[in-house]
Amino acid sequence: DGGITQSPKYLFRKEGQNVTLSCEQNLNHDAMYWYRQDPGQGLRLIYYSQIVNDFQKGDIAEGYSVSREKKESFPLTVTSAQKNPTAFYLCASTNGGPAGEQYFGPGTRLTVT
Amino acid sequence: DAKTTQPPSMDCAEGRAANLPCNHSTISGNEYVYWYRQIHSQGPQYIIHGLKNNETNEMASLIITEDRKSSTLILPHATLRDTAVYYCIVRVLAANAGKSTFGDGTTLTVKP
Predict the structure, then answer these.
(1) CA distances, A66 to each of A12, A36, B47, B86 (Å)
(2) Which of A22, B38, B60, B111 has its CA 20 to 30 A from that of A66?
(3) A40 backbone φψ class: left, alpha, beta (φ>0; ψ -120 to 50)
(4) Residues of chain B where predicted confidence (pLDDT) is lower than 70
């Protein structure tokens, strides 16, 4: 089955540690995105990548880093510089077909204490 | 990408039509209107999109005003499972078109 996988579903880290969230897609999509969601709020764009080896900052990129070495993978690193890292993180990719819709992964809930 | 404005919450009786409005007064000529919904703690799900004509699929209908400055998503017979946050976004159609920005959406509560 084609889709987007994010792992793990729940992640716990101590403050001051960097943590990397995985996002893999087998949909052959060029564009991939990372969003952050805080309780009761909408999605905010962290980073996006339109093509391999290229990515751009979204609205809240500070304290995060990404890489796009392969078309199917777009990992997100939450660094110790991120002041409030506890959140629900969603990865998405975009379909190049007639609808152009975004497909979302199931998300990773990160808790930093 | 153009910005959208949605009411924060709405209620609807089960079995009745749910009409969710969205304002996008700064939409550009090549930007489409997309609707997604997010059920609690899951990834958002695509519902429908359109450019200027009204659209209908198995999930919903999309009505876009003639000036394209606003639209309405219609769930014709809402069920309890339609309770979710509904997001309206505008962006160009191309797959790698760049930023795709979501706002806070509308929380729709379908009541028995």
Answers:
(1) 20, 14, 29, 28
(2) B38
(3) left
(4) 1-2, 94-98
